[in-house]
Request: fold
Amino acid sequence: MHNIATLPAPRNAWYVGAWSHEVTEKPLARTILNERVVLFRDRAGKAAALEDRCSHRATPLSLGEVTERGLECGYHGLTFNGDGDCVFIPGQDSIPPQACVRAYPVVERQGFVWLWTGDPERIDDATLIDWPWNDDAENWPVRYGRMHLKCNYMLVMENLMDLTHIPYIHRKTIGGGDQMGQVNAEMITKRTDTGVHYIRWMDGIQPPPTYVKAAGFAEGVKVDRWQEFEYVAPITVLQWTGALESGRGARENRDQDGGFSLRIYHGATPETDTSCHYYFAINNGCMARSEADNDKLFQEIWNTFLEDIDFVERQQACLETDPERPLVDIKHDSARIQARRKIERMVAAESAMAVAAE
Amino acid sequence: MHNIATLPAPRNAWYVGAWSHEVTEKPLARTILNERVVLFRDRAGKAAALEDRCSHRATPLSLGEVTERGLECGYHGLTFNGDGDCVFIPGQDSIPPQACVRAYPVVERQGFVWLWTGDPERIDDATLIDWPWNDDAENWPVRYGRMHLKCNYMLVMENLMDLTHIPYIHRKTIGGGDQMGQVNAEMITKRTDTGVHYIRWMDGIQPPPTYVKAAGFAEGVKVDRWQEFEYVAPITVLQWTGALESGRGARENRDQDGGFSLRIYHGATPETDTSCHYYFAINNGCMARSEADNDKLFQEIWNTFLEDIDFVERQQACLETDPERPLVDIKHDSARIQARRKIERMVAAESAMAVAAE
Amino acid sequence: MHNIATLPAPRNAWYVGAWSHEVTEKPLARTILNERVVLFRDRAGKAAALEDRCSHRATPLSLGEVTERGLECGYHGLTFNGDGDCVFIPGQDSIPPQACVRAYPVVERQGFVWLWTGDPERIDDATLIDWPWNDDAENWPVRYGRMHLKCNYMLVMENLMDLTHIPYIHRKTIGGGDQMGQVNAEMITKRTDTGVHYIRWMDGIQPPPTYVKAAGFAEGVKVDRWQEFEYVAPITVLQWTGALESGRGARENRDQDGGFSLRIYHGATPETDTSCHYYFAINNGCMARSEADNDKLFQEIWNTFLEDIDFVERQQACLETDPERPLVDIKHDSARIQARRKIERMVAAESAMAVAAE
Ligand code: FES
Ligand code: FES
Ligand code: FES
Reply:
C-alpha cells in the first residue's frame, strides 16, 4: 500500500492542464505531476504545453512571449514551437537537435485542455473524460473554477466519494438539518472498469429550500432526490445531483424537465505529491438560469468547497506527521475504499511496468 | 552532552498544556513535545487532552466540536470521550477497539492544565508544580500570559537562571542604571533535588522607581531587595522578587506586609525541539492592586519579556548554524550550568531507560 | 564541473562585505559565504568584521553595541575588539583565550569594505578591485546600490557577460528597438589573467534618446558606441559604457569630454550557495550631473536591474529542480563560458589545495 499522504499519480493518463480560457498567448506556468509546464496558445490558436525550462540556460519559458515562430525565451530569444522543436537561435544558423524541449501531447475540447504526462507511445483515451454539457450552454450554462490545494489529490477524490461528510463538514451550511437522515440515505455502489460509481436516493422527501428556489417546486410538493457520483481514475469525479416531483418516475428517467438538476465535473490534477489543482465545472440544468442566478449558484458552491478544503488540507498536514500509521475503515467507506483500491492498482501496475522496462 | 539547539525533553513529566481558561468546549489544538494534541472541556466541565488525529482518516479532531457524547470529529462524526475511547461511529453499531485515540492524563489545578506526556504507568508528581498564589486572588491577584517562541525550551530557562543579562538585554528599560552593581550583586546558589535555586541580595539600596510606586515606600527610605529564582526541571522557573524596608529583617522573613513583592511562574513547554510555549503567571503581592494597576504591571512585564525573546530566538538561530561548536562558560554561569546539568541528567536517564526497555 | 545552481565560491579572495557608508557604530549583520558576519566601526572609526556569534552563549553579536572597549555582546556583556580578542568579561578578571571570536581581515577604500574570507596567511590582493572613480566625485559622481538576490552569484556574472539578453529581458525598456542589431553587434572577447574581457562596438549609429539627453549630442549627430565589460573572478564585473561623436576616434581614445560615459561596478558577494548580495556603484561621467540627474539615472538603472533579477531568480529556481541536467551552449555564449571556466578553475584549485592540506 502506498503512503496516503504522498500517493503518486500514474503518468500514463490524461490530466487537466488548464481550462481552455486560461490558455492564451500569454504563457501560463503550472506545475503538474512535479514537472514545470508552460501552456500557451500559438498564433494559429493551437494550445500547446512544453516543459517550462529553456534548453539554453534553464530559464522558465513562461517568462517569454509568443511570436510568429512559437514561444520565445525571454532571456536570449531561443524559440520553440508547440512540438518542443527549437526553431530559432539568435546569432546562429544551425540548431543542434539537443536544443529542443519536451512537449506534452495536448487535447483541447469541451472547455478542457488535457495533457498527457506519460509516454507518448502509450497514449490511450480511457482516461479522457467526456463532459458534453460544457458545450451545451443553452441547456447547461457552465461556470469554471480552479483552486490550489495543499493536499494529495486523492484526498479530494475521497472527500467526494463519501457524502456522509455533508452533515458534519457542512453542518452550518448545506448539511444542516436531519443529520442521521443524511448519513443513512440509501446508497447503491458498483465497481466500474474505470473506478467506482454510486447513487444515493432520498424518496418522497420535502425538497431543500435551494432546490425549491432553483427548480420552482410548488408548495407542499414532495420529491425524489438523488446524488450520483462516479470516480474515474485517476483524478475525476463526475457528479449529478437532482430531484423530480415524486411520482414522475425519477428512478427510471432522471432526465426530465421541471426538476432540479446540477452536474459538476471535479478534477484534481496533482501539482506535487502533496498538492493539487482542483478544477471544477458547474453545469446548471435547472429552469432558473439567468447570468446572475448562475453566478450566485457558483459562489455558493465555491463557498461550500472552501469548507471541504479546510478539512482536506489539515488532514494532509496531520497525515504527514506520521504517514505510516494505520487508519480505521468504517461501514460508510465502501465507495471511498473502492476508489482508492482502483488508483492503488493503477499506480502499482505502472510501477511494475517501469520495473519490467528496466 | 546533547545539542543545545535541540535538547529533547523528558517524556515522563508533567507539562503545562494550557491555562485553565483556554480550555473550553471549543477544541484547542496545541503541539506539545512534537505531538499534535487537542484540549477540550467536556459537557461535564472536565478538561481532557487527546491526540489531535482522528483514527478514521487522520483529520485533526480540533476541527470538530464537543457534543453530549464527547469530542465529535468534524469530518464524518466519529466521537471520542476524554479517555480516548471511540463512543460513536455514524452508520454502524459495533465499534472496533482500534478506533480509539491516545489520551493524555490531565491534572487541572491552580489555573494550570497539566499534561503527562509519558508512560501513564510511570506518573509521578515530582514535576507537578505547586503555585497556590493563583488561588489566592485577594492577596495575590494574577495575570496569565502565553507566548510562542522559536527556540529550544532550555534557552528560556537559562535566560532566567542568569540575571546578569538584565543590565544588558534590558539596558534601555528595567536594567538601566548601575550596570556593574547589578552584575555583581551577592548571589547564593544551591542545588536542589529537582533543579537549582538561587537568591540575590542587594541590601540597603535605594528602591527602584517602580518599587516605590507599587509599594509606596516613603521618600529617602532604603530597602533590602531580593531576587529569588528556582529552576524545577524540566520546564519551570519560580520567581519571587521583592524588597522590604531595611531593618525589618527581610533576610529572616520576607513574607511581611508593606513591601514590594512579586511572584512569577515561568514555564516553557516544548512545542518542537526548536520551539516552545512560554507560559507565565504574574502574581502581584503588593499593596497597590487595582485591576488597572495589575493590567499595567502585566503589560510592563510582557514588554520586558519581548526583549528577552528577541535574544533567545536569535540565539537559537545562531546555535542552529553550527550546533556542535563549543562555548565558553564564565563565572556568572554557576546557576545556569547546574540547571543544564540537571536536565541533561534527566534526559540521559530517560534515554537509558528506553534503551534498557528495548 | 560544479552544479550551476550551487556553485561554491573560493574562500581565498576579497569580497565586498558592505559599502563604507553602511558600516557604522550600529552593528550590521550580514551572511557572507554561508557565514554569519557582523560589521561595525569602532570608536576610532576603524571598520571591523567578526563572526556574528558570541563565544559565551552563541548570541549574535550584532544585537550588541559598540563601546569604548569594542563590540559588547547584548546578552551578558562580553566585549570584543576588531581583532576578535575578548577584552572584557563582566564579573571576572581573567579572560580565557578561547573566548575570542573569529575576525575577518578588512580593507576599506574607494567606498568599499572588502573582507577576506579565507586563510589570513594567504592574503593576496589579486582579487582586490581598483575603482578609483568612487573617489573622484567631481568628475564621476557616484550612487551606491545593494540588492538581495535569491540566486547563485555566478548567475549575476553570467547575465552581465552576455548582453544579447538586453533586447529580450529589457525589450520593454532599454532594449527596445532594433533587436537583431543589438544581438549581432561586433564583439571582441579576450581572456585575461583574472577572468575575461569584452568590448562591443556599434559604429556610426544614431545615439539612443537617453544618451542624447545625458550627453547633449546635437541633432542628427551619429556616434560610435561601446559596451565594455570585464569579469574579474570571483565576483566582479567592471562596466564602461559610452559613446562619442563619430569621427572623434573613439576606438583610439574613449576618454574624451563631451560624450556619453558611464561606469558601473558590479559585485555579487555570495550569501549562501543559492543567494547573494548584489552591490553596484554607478559613476556618471557625463556632462549632465546635477544631484537630481544622478538620482534619476540611478533609479532608471535600478529599475533595469529589477528586470534582470526577476530572470536570474527564476532561473535559479528552475535550475534547482534538476541541477544535473545538461544545457546547450550557443554562439553568443563565448564570454559567459570563459567567465565560468575561470571560476570553475579557481574553485577546483582551492578544493585541490584543501585536499592536499589534509
Ligand atoms: S535561457 Fe533561454 S534563450 Fe538563453
Ligand atoms: S476523519 Fe474523523 S470521522 Fe472521518
Ligand atoms: S551570550 Fe554573549 S555575553 Fe553571554
Chain A has six helices and 18 strands.
